[in-house]
Amino acid sequence: MRRWHPHILAAKLPALRRRARLAQAVRAFFDRRGYTEVETAYAVPTPGEEVHLQIFATERRRPTGEAEALYLHTSPEFAMKKLLASGAGPIFQLARVWRNAEGSDRHTHEFTMLEWYRPQASMTDLMDETEALLRATLPPLVTCRGIACDLSRFERLTMAEAFQRYVGADVLETAGDAAALAAQAGTRLRAAETWEDLFFRLLLERIEPQLGQSHPTFLTHWPAAQAALARRDPADPRVAERFELYVCGLELANAFVELTDAEEQRARFVADRAQRQALYGGPDWPMDEDLLALLPEMGDCAGIALGFDRLVMLAAGVDDIAAVLWTGEPG
Question: How far does CA 208 lie from the centroid of its chain?
């Protein structure tokens, strides 16, 4: 069965040309701000440590015949942090990344991630810079999936404020207590539902549909347990310095003030690995010892991963991610 016809490209060409111009504008934005564009390996021994992301496995064969298990990375984060700790300065990358078992009108198993890291940056600094990037590369009013979003104002909403406003619950006071959170939210716990399960169900069903509607929304200060790579907020250790950005109802970006405590990061990785194995099984991979050794050398910094394909959807005003992919398909 044929999977490609010339008319497919003809229908998508206006959005794809917008994609090319957007990539140029993004590079110009970071060049003006003194960033260096980098390119890191895609097939790596350690693809990431996210619990719920499925990976693509491959193999490297050496000329001697020896084989080494490799994986297509789910993010260039680990490699970029090593560069940052080694003195690369502010860096960015338009990287291809892979996440198996994903596909919809907003998701694809292979996509482009715009990721950047800025030394000595706070969460506020990074939100300011993200606002500047969107205003520099997108029209003042963007429309996607039937939602018009005005970029003249960005809302900044903490997770605790969002739960209070849209769920009627104190997400920090009830942390770890699924029954208490369910009672405050006026819902019943499902069979074997944990606090984390309920947290994400309420986030998905009641909060996310309210975000990034008439204007973009930063959802900030996530519970510490939901920010495996982020530093705890010195002012309130119950939360981590993490934010997500929503525009036209799309989750566009995920950002952290980076954790640089190697012992704490190792403990989080170990816990995440145990949870991933319990839920999904499958292969495991070596701990990235180089990353852990270099974390203390990074110093204070903040980093962000932004879905470039979704940024193109906003720029081109299209509702399906397939419309902004030169080749390939979302499913």
Answer: 15
